[in-house]
Amino acid sequence: MKHVKLYLTALLFAALGITGCDDNWDTPPLVTPEATITANTTILELKQAYWFEDYMGVDTIGTKENGDHIVIKGRVVSSDESGNIYKNMVIDDGTAAITLSIDANSLYNTYRFGQEIVIDATDMYIGNYQGLQQLGTPEYNAEYEEVQMARMPLEFFQEHAQLNGLPEPTLVDTLVVPSISALPTTPEGIIAYQSKLVRFDNVQFDDGGKLPFSESEKTVSRMISDGTASLTLRNSGYANFYNRILPEGTGSVVGILGYYRGTWQLTLRSYEDCIFNGEVLPGTKGNPYTVSQAIEGQGNNSGWVKGYIVGAVAPNKETVSSNSDIEWAAPFSLPNTLVIAESADVRDYTKCLVINLPQNSELRRLANLADNANNLGAEILLKGTFANLYGMAGIKENAGTTEEFDFTPVVVVSSVDENFDSYSIAESGKYLDLSSDNLLGEGWSLITPSGDKDWSIRRFDEGGTENNYITCSGFSGTPSPDFDSWLITPAVNIGNLAEKVLSFRSEVNGYGSTTSVVEVYVMSTNDPETANLTKLDPVMPDAPATGYSAWTQSGNVDLSGFSGIVYIGFRYYATPDENYATWCIDDIKIGVRGEDVVETEGNGTEAAPFTVSDVLAGAAGDDMWVTGYIVGFSNGSDATESAVFSAENARDNNILIAGSANETDIVKCVCVALPSGDVRNAVNLKDNAGNLGKKVSVQGDLATLYGIPGVRNTSAYKF
User: Is this model's pTM higher than 0.90 or not?
Assistant: First the structure.
């Protein structure tokens, strides 16, 4: 699927204000950190130089042979956010990883996943704690009567460590271990594998579906197996997922690879590190909780939540106790909170979650309603801990960085009126590839979930006038497994539309296809894979066996049953077939009334031609069949002034037809052009006076002729 990516601009600090007061005071702009020291030693080289064969041992890191300080760097691959990792952090430079034992909590607030850290390691302490090599501080262990590694003070670490740049999670690699039995046993392998972020596939929990990950305030070991061996999983009773039941079945587990007295063990960074039975576990980004589930999980759960923005906490409200404490509509006063619900139309605070928007964060900048009122009704995905805020259900501990939320600001237009004629196409019949040329205006999107065919713009000159329209076909393409291509309008706020209607014109070239369709949907977002979709029922043409149908007016499709921010999606869908229909769309209007659909007796085909009444009522199209009785001709360029209801002195270039053979009222007649050739020779009254009063069917383009409704470019006839 093609999507617009959201890029990080600033994320380093998150000041968490949790009152309804405006904390949006002016602050200095954030500066991207830049280390003043440069790495000259890899982590692997450092670990190899200071390796202890024993489970205990401590050494002071010296200098290089030339006297330079030993400097290493690495990206953070761990996180203590969930509480399962306690007072340590792991960095990896690609050669190896090393654990940093630091006497501090919530390290993730400053040292986020993917953050590069440069460390002047000279005069720091390196050694083993029960076999795990790490940086820390010496401490005498009375039980073993020897010095071991312990946690270094945070201040000491900060004296030696510098942040470099902003976090880049995409630069973090996970080592895939082919099997548990493949874990190394040699010193070289142990040095290389210790503290790495690893993944094991095709594993099972020995107690899956039976026991929780841990017990409250206890550290518990659980076992995973893959058929070749077993591995210990260490779980803290302080983790925010400790009471969740171990997954059943077979799946993948990701974690930090530890080492304890000759035995490998694994520590999860979060609940999301488990993916089982081919499904993403509940509460993960791929399978987020609903707002209702997050409300139920208050106080003992965390994870990702998906909801719709419905408001913000009103000013000077420290406790929300009624619906009046929430601002549900613009204007919005403060930028520091959002209120989300399971659907965009909820206005009951007891069914909502309140979210704090950290000051100076990307989340606040992009999502807050005070500056972005158009976001009302938009979908948002974010993670955090479920806990009380403002006296109501809420989400805490979201730092506001782009790795902790997924949201695209809503560009809302007041209406849509697009006929695609502004696009420059050199020749009639040529196409313009919108996806490659990136020519869609702001808010429009093209999304192709399946197949290799997108919507494109085509120019087709009609009657000397250039006309562009948007078109899609599976012809000469490759389905995978089907063709599925969406043209999606900018967001519109239904409440702001002068006319709550949609209209457009469409035509289709059937090529004998019965499997190619265009469907039209109201969408809650512009992502068809996640949006709530409501299929509309506009008037659409039937695909003919050959050639193109007539352009068909959709009618003014009622949108008054919808509210908030919506999108209109035009979906081309085709299953594999020998032939694929080409569908064309033009004159898309939202909030602007288009033409009403004309109710006709016929449909313009040879088998069911339009009647004169149909044409007079507004039937339109090219190559349409029309039937009526020949009642006269126009003797001049204005039929209303020069109509003659006889065959006397008739002209041979036109006839008048009506619904009855004795009609003499010009306003009830249609003028038919007779171009030179077989049609003129057979139909005209000058040479065929006996045709007066006969019923005839003619084929041509419906258009004004001699000042009245008429048929131009007449190409066929039938008495």
Answer: no
